[in-house]
Amino acid sequence: GRGNNRRRRDVALALSPAASVVVSAARGGAATRALVPRPPVLPPSQCARGPPLRRMTHSGSALLQRPHRRSRGIQPVRLNRLLFEAEEIQFTDPPRSAIDAPATAYVELPLDDYRAMHVRDVLGANSGESVRVGVVDGGKKDDAFITWGAKDLRISLGDARPLMEPIPEAKKPKVELLLAMPRPRVFERLLPVISQSGVRRLFVCGSAKVNASYWSTHMLNPTHARHEDGLLKMREKLKEGLTQSGDTALPTVHVKKNLRIFVESAASLDKEFPPNEYIRLIAHPSRREQQSKMGLPPIKRLYEIDFRELFRGGAKRVIVAVGPDGGWEEPWEIDRFIEKGFIPFTLGERVLHTEVAVPVLLGLIHERVDEALDHSF
Known about the structure:
Elements: H1 2-14, H2 17-27, H3 29-35, H4 44-47, E1 54-58, E2 61-65, E3 82-84, E4 90-91, E5 105-110, H5 114-123, E6 130-135, E7 140-148, E8 152-158, H6 161-164, E9 175-180, H7 184-197, E10 201-205, H8 227-245, E11 252-256, H9 259-264, H10 266-272, E12 278-283, H11 288-293, E13 300-301, H12 307-312, E14 317-322, H13 332-339, E15 343-346, H14 354-372
Parallel strand pairs: 3-6, 9-10, 9-14, 10-11, 12-14, 12-15, 13-15
Antiparallel strand pairs: 1-2, 4-5, 5-8, 6-7, 7-8
Helix pairs in contact: 2-3, 7-8, 7-14
C-alpha cells in the first residue's frame, strides 16, 4: 500500500551514497566541522535546503525574493538579532569620522554567510522586509531593511551613527562572573550561556579542584600553536549567546590562573572589584554538619541577602564566584573569599554541575539586582 511504498523509499534513501556520506561526516569530528558554518548557528541540512528564490517586481524593479515556508514541526534556533562587527559596516561615502558618518550605511553578506542563510532559510524574509540588527559593543536597530542580490544579501542600516556609538557603562550588565575553570568542552558550551545571561566581565580562575590540564585549551593558552584561532572561536561563541538574547554587550574574558595569588593580593582583588562598588558573592553547596566542624559560618540562602541595602550603600555591580563541580575547597578557599568580603550563599545541599549552576545562579542574581534597583522589564 501507500505506507509500504513510503517505507521502501525511506530505506532506499538511507542506503543511498549521499546518505552514507552524511552519516560518516556526522561521526567524524573533522568532517563535521567542515560541514558546519562558522559560527555553527544552523545545521547545514537546514541551511542548504529550502525553496528556491523567485523573482518578483517591487516598485518597478526586479528583486530576488524568498517565499515564506510553512513549519514542518521542527523549528531551528532563531537569531533574535543579527550581529555585525564594526569593520563590516560600509558607507556610500567614506566618513571622515564617526560623527560625520553618512545616513546611508549598509552591510553586504555573502549568501553562504550563516546570517544570510538564517534570514533566507529560517526567517524567510523577502526584499523590503526588516530584520533586527546590532553592532558588537555598539547600538541596536530593529528596522534594518534587506535586499536580496544574485550573490549577496544587502542590509540597509540607514543612519549608522547610533549603531557605532559604544555602550555606556551604565547600560552594561551589572553582574560579573568569577568562574573556576571547568573542563574545556564544558567551558566552550558555557560561553554562549554566559553572554546570553548578561555578564559584563568573565574571570576564569584556578582552584584546588581544577585539573592543570584544563589550561592547555587553545582558547586560554597563549603558547598554543592555535591560540589565535582559539580566541576567535571564543569570541564567536560569546557572540552566539548575544544573538539569542538580543543584546550587544560582549563580555570581556580575563584569566587568573593562580587563585591563591589573586585572592590573597588585596591590591589585585580590590583593583578588579573595588569593595565600595561591588557586592561580592561566593556560591557554594550547603553541608551544615561538615562545614560547622570546619569552623565555617552558616551559609545564607540568596533571598536572605538584602540587595537593596547593599546598593543603597553605594554598590554598583555584583561579582559572583562559582567554583568547580564539587564546589570550592573547604575550608581554605571559602575562608580566603570570606576574608576578602565575599558573602557566601547557597542554593541548597544539591551539588550541581558547573553548566547547570552557572545559568541558574546568573538568572537568580539578575532577578535580585533588578528587584533591588526597581528596574521594570
